[in-house]
Give the backbone structure.
Amino acid sequence: MFEKCKLICLGEGKADWLAKGGDAALVCSVDQLRGMLLIGEELPEKIVFDGSLKEFIRLFPERTPEESCEAVNVYLEQGVAEWENDHWEFFTCRAAVLGCCSGFYLSIVNKKDIK
């Protein structure tokens, strides 16, 4: 199922992912991803992120919300694997720009399980 996903969020599931044959060298930390986004480096086609989906999305608003939404949706629309509650969830979704009194932020919408 991992091959269908452009984004794998390990959260607390790093050991499980590695046990299933995942390559530790491909794992991108929060600091590595933040650095890539800050300097405008092109992101890899597939990301294995050492954190949760929520943490992943929170890194993108460091750019403008609209650009962030576009960049993150490239990964979300193609498929996400996330370790949550001691099991893997596989789904597609989209991020949308929402606003409130404290400013704009990205939020997940249209979450659908991958069958």
Remarks:
- The beta strands are 7-9, 27-28, 47-49, 80-84, 87-100, 103-113.
- The longest strand covers residues 87-100.
